[in-house]
Amino acid sequence: MPGKLVNITIVTEFLLMGFPDNWMLQKLCAVLFFLIYLTALMGNLLIVILTTIDQHLQAPMYFFLKNLSFIDICYISVTVPKSNMNSLIKSYSISFLGCALQIFLFTTFGITEYVLLIVMSYDRYAAICHPLHYEIIMNRHACVRMVTASWFSGCIYGSIHVAGTFSVNFCGSNIVHQFFCDIPSLLTLACPGEEILEYAFLIASFSFAFLCFIFIITSYVYIFSAVLRIPSAQARFKTISTCMPHLIVVALFLFSGIVTYLGTNYTSATSLNLFISVLYTMLPPSLNPLIYSLRNKDMKAALGKLLSGEVRLKI
């Protein structure tokens, strides 16, 4: 029996059609995206500046936080500026190479952030469960190696998934029902059966991510066990308060990711799809600075010094 013929398309560009057709809604979304992007940019840049110039913010926790903020700036900058530019000039195309680059950068920064959050959970574990050896465990060289490993993991992940996604042939339409290039949306355009390799990569990635999540849970089991052994209620509260921002950020990052990949319909553009995508791509980078700043006395003190002129920014 002869095989079924498929119409393989040579794709040179994709059309990012993640916005609903309503013109007014598109403009409102563009304004909202810009405001969220500006908030994320200013908040994360402020944390990078404070943790760089203030001598009281040189502990490993703030070194990791500075890197997290830098990653968040890169993460949100991959998608929002291009999307807003498309809305302004009413051109929704992105080149094949541009789409591949966007997927690589988006996945690289996303996984780098996830691995860094795992490193930060280990930092909290070392600080609370092994306080006498903390400075030895989390010395400067160890911190740099951990951050380097986070970036290396992200780059490897991004390279694998770009190779897996663009190893397929595309059939029919080149319309991506998303406001940026992402893997699930592109796989809906692949010829039948050719997306198996990338799906295998995705399953392996989610399995590895789940093992990393177990590591975070295990770290906090030990942390809470150590906290419960502290006799003073005030000391217990103070200790656990140092972990709360990290726990909230991890929960926000994982929750938004799970909701996005389980709740999005990648074959059509709807207001719900747009809302879910915004939840994943913009909410964590814009809320992370707020979460870490509100409960941190040292950060608020450093900000006060900067605003009052006690600490000057050297250019």
SSE layout and pairings?
Layout: E1 8-9, E2 13-16, H1 23-53, H2 60-77, H3 80-89, E3 93-95, H4 96-129, H5 134-137, H6 140-165, E4 170-171, E5 175-176, H7 183-187, H8 196-228, H9 233-241, H10 244-263, H11 271-281, H12 283-294, H13 297-308
Parallel strand pairs: 2-5
Antiparallel strand pairs: 1-4, 2-3
Helix pairs in contact: 1-2, 1-3, 1-12, 2-4, 2-12, 4-6, 4-8, 4-10, 6-8, 10-11, 10-12
Terminal residue distance: 72 Å
Number of helices: 13
Q: What class do helices, strands and sheet pairing give?
A: mainly alpha
Let me know the largest β-sheet. 3 strands, mixed
The CATH H-level homologous superfamily: Rhodopsin 7-helix transmembrane proteins
> Number of domains in the coordinates?
1
Keywords: Cell membrane, G-protein coupled receptor, Membrane, Olfaction, Receptor, Sensory transduction, Transducer, Transmembrane, Transmembrane helix
Protein name: Olfactory receptor
Family: Belongs to the G-protein coupled receptor 1 family.
GO molecular function, one term: G protein-coupled receptor activity
Polypeptide structure, described:
This protein has 315 residues and is mainly α. It has a single domain, classed as Up-down Bundle (Rhopdopsin 7-helix transmembrane proteins), CATH 1.20.1070. 71% of the residues lie in helices and 4% in strands. It contains 13 helices and 5 strands. The protein has helices at 23-53, 60-77, 80-89, 96-129, 134-137, 140-165, 183-187, 196-228, 233-241, 244-263, 271-281, 283-294, 297-308; strands spanning 8-9, 13-16, 93-95, 170-171, 175-176. The strands form 2 sheets. The chain has a 3-stranded mixed sheet with strand order 3-2-5. A two-stranded antiparallel sheet has the order 1-4. Helix 6 (140-165) runs antiparallel to helix 8 and helix 10 runs antiparallel to helix 12. The protein is globular. The N and C termini lie far apart (72 Å). The chain crosses the membrane at residues 24-50, 62-80, 92-122, 142-160, 199-223, 244-262, 274-294. One of its GO terms (molecular function) is olfactory receptor activity. Its main location: membrane.
